[in-house]
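I am still getting used to backbone structure tokens and would like to learn alongside you. Label the sequence line and the structure token line clearly, so we can match residues to local backbone shapes. Would you write everything just below, so we can both look at the same thing?
***
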Amino acid sequence: MNNNKSEAKETSRLITTDGKFSDESIKILVEKTISVTGKEFFNILVKNLSDVLGVNYVFVSKCLNIERTRVRTLAFWEKNKFGDALEYDLQGTPCKNVISGEFCCYDDNVISLYPDDKDLIYYDAKCYLGIPIYNSKNLVVGHLAIFNDESFSEISRYYSILQIFALRAGAEMERLKMEDSLRQSHDNLEKAFKEIEKLKDKLEMENQSLQEEIKTSHNHEEIIGDSKILKEIMSKVETVSLTDSTVLIRGDTGTGKERIARAIHNLSSRNERALIKVNCPAIPSGLIESELFGHEKGAFTGALTKKIGKFELADGGSIFLDELGDLPIDAQAKLLRVLQEREFERVGGAETKEVDVRVIAATNRDLETAVKEGKFRADLYYRLNVFPLVLPSLKDRKEDIPMLATYFTQKYSRRMGRNISSINEEDVARLKSYSWPGNIRELENVIERAVILSKSNKLEINEEFFGALSDLITSDDKSLNLEDIERNHIVDVLNKTNWKINGDDGAAKILGINPSTLRSRMAKLGIEKINALK
């Protein structure tokens, strides 16, 4: 309170007896405003002008539109405090003339001249002074205004000194505008860099995923055959590919589930984006969530960098969840959320990511039985089973075997620089008589071995190529289920390779699967070398 009184005494001496600014008043005003910028400058200006002039109301405004029909105050001194910002239209106010570029001064009775100005009425204004604020291009960008609830004689005499501070206000407004522009440019640049980094990460991950697919893919896009059952499957593929519906592909190992998934994606409107494949059995159980949804740096031990998950990578495209039936229950719950709500969080992250992904799943499991046994979520099963496709085993489409055999013969002949042009009828009949427990994948492996070992331009197929399973299947032993057959077949191939899994002469290569997938199947089927030798 004492400080305010002393300040009032000081400022009362800033005006001479004839009502003009003294040199001391100008000096103090300059000193108090010269070292401040931004919002603080406007605050100090209006407060000190009020003190010096002995008026109750002073404000600085800024034009809000190109037409200069509306303004908002940058600082407003209201008697003994800073008032709230005012925003108003200029029509019907003395400010309209000022913004038009005129010096406007009314020593008394200003309300009678502008009866529609509600603010003048509210503050019971008697006198008014307005000075336009110009920028460096000589355009009006706002105004400095003074009004009082008592008449203020000859207020116009302060025009020259007030014009100086109006010029300073114009320079400050322009500087702030440039700062805002630079700040916005900097923010936009930062945002662009972040977006570039995000796209870079995504492209790197997508490239890595595509490279992995190139290494492991063997032209699976081609679907060879002319059988009635295959035509029916392809008709359904063409129908569902025109939608975004989730597809569940069922079928035994080696029946071509991935080829069907690729056909659905390639025929869809999403074919400009990659089909991201997830081999569910090959992912360690502790890393499934990170693989599917990604993780933030430091989310867990070993998470040295941020990782984009497969779902985020597939945004705008399709994701193929191969052998989905092998997913653990906890991962199934998280997958269900993505299917239902199309959103997820990275491991260790709080930001919710939204994705637009078409899901294609495949399994050789009996999911209905798995649901009954509590090994697969019923709600997830129903969410996936929107459009089921059941692929036939090769033994159910034997009329396609000659066409498939010819295709694989030509494929591997070109790859190895051979000129094998035909298959004799006896070998074709032998191929058709075999039950093919490994389906198309096993047929492809048999043909590849035959191409390697054939000595003439005619394919030579040795009986031993079919493996020990031939006798097992032809004997029609009903006591063996599918897992028994798969287990015996894998053990037979492992014995032939002396239990070597990796490499061109390893069991994984012969079986046509990734080594990690083979190890996963061995663990699932309980295959160990010691047990197999007993």
